[in-house]
Amino acid sequence: MKKFRIVLAAFATFLCLAALTACGVSMEETDVSFDDIVCVYEIYPLLGSEPPTSYTVYADNTVEVFCNTEWYNDKEGGGEWELDRRFAISDEERSAIENSITQSKLWTVYDCSDNGVTDGTNEFIYLCDADGEVIHTCGGYNPTDKRFREAADLILRTARAHS
Length: 163
Known about the structure:
Blueprint: H1 2-22, H2 27-31, E1 37-44, E2 53-58, E3 62-67, E4 82-88, H3 91-103, E5 122-128, E6 134-141, H4 146-161
Antiparallel strand pairs: 1-2, 1-5, 2-3, 3-4, 5-6
Helix pairs in contact: 3-4
């Protein structure tokens, strides 16, 4: 009888762990915060086309766009990021970006590169904690993940609507 109880307890523990895993519980999920920075989206186009651009979406409905015009001229790929423009978005636009990130659980997406492509763009979305520190990066070379694409495209559409 004692052996049966041990087996039953082990089985119940296994079921609980399996249920938590199946529900997509993630420790990283609890660390993502929209308190200061909602996200940062960076795009590095093909060499020589357009300069790399970074879009920082803040919780106060501000978006800052930075460009790095020296990126391709600097042998080490550095250069300086310069503020190109700053604009305000509506609560609805910011909420839509936040919802795109949370509903798709973007913190579960990592490298979603399409390595079979020879001409592509590097794109990344950075998620931050409550202190504004980057805690998750997703994207890569010509990213193909549907969840990544939806969030990135929404950020670009929002920025273009204000340019």
